[in-house]
Amino acid sequence: MRARKPFRWPLAALLAALCLAALALTGCASAAGPGPAEPTAKSAGGASGGAGPQATPEARREAELQREFAAQTYYERLDRLNAVAWPLATAGEPLCRQRGRVHQSLGLVADSFNRRDNRRWFAALSGLWGVGEDTPVVIGVMPGGPAHLAGVRRGDVLRAAKGKPLDVSGNSADLTRRLDDLAAGGPVDLELVRAGKPLTLTIPAPKAICDTRFTVILGDAVNAYADGKNVFATYGAMNLFAKDEDLAVVLGHELAHNILGHVRQDASGKATGATTPQQEAEADAVGLYFTARAGFNIKDAPGVWRRLAAQNPTHISAGGDHPSTAARFLNLEAVRDEILMRQAAGLPLIPRPRVAPTQ
Ligand SMILES: [Zn+2]
After folding, report:
1. For the residues 214-224, what does the mean pLDDT come to?
2. Are strands 213-217 and 230-234 parallel, antiparallel or unpaired?
3. Cα 257 to ligand 1 centroid, rounded to whole Å
4. Which domains does the chain have, with CATH numbers?
């Protein structure tokens, strides 16, 4: 399963990958939008159905099967990301509220596969879920969240919300945000189709969470980054941080960048510029508070930096925008001890202000 045809990356995703390779676990700016960075139609096989110009019917069927495996793998990773991110975003809500960075969430992720670049990638899902292009579908459900408690499941087709068909323009984040916005006016009735049968479920109330969306992106490079509104993690990062408590440290760090306003955006909302060493230290500290509040074991949290250093030794003594992995290990150790002391003393897990100029 390791050998695969190389993907042709969209430019935005390529820039993001370079950014990651250079900086590793930064709040660095990226032009990549939410949603999986899918291969383009050309790299997925062009007009031949995904198995080259001389494709036989058998090869086409095999290509479809492989797309289905790939899609299932993507959703398994999205499930893991959601299972780690949802506690961060809910338990951290009081910290986010202090900064005015909260939104009401139904606890689901929807997509409509209406982007040209992901139609082929998700073609296999039309068979899996019985949906066509531009059909809004639930692709993720936050464990213990409002949608989950109301009985919503992945693969549910969204026919209408509050009696109206959904506007499927834009990407997955746009669609999910519009659904969340509906919750501001009271309970949300979802008209769904599950296994071909209509079903109506009511989500009585949304949940207030930190205003950040979490997304998995393809790519072996070990990278996670924030753009002010979203946090992205590559397959490479999810592989290296195979333990959920490690992944939580990484996602907590990126969430902190967003909540602390470290990511500068241009007039169009695109992230620009790099973070300062002080901001990195602040994001490490506040991020670990998010991680602890979410109930993850933080005793070995500083070890994240050793694992990253082992994978990428050039960062051990890196200067410039990012402190070295050695300095970050020591910083995180001090923050961990501070949090453990607070937990032992029954004190609230609210980080003390740190000297970190936000720009
Ligand atoms: Zn960072």
Report:
1. 91
2. parallel
3. 7
4. 39-89+100-209 (2.30.42.10), 218-345 (no CATH)
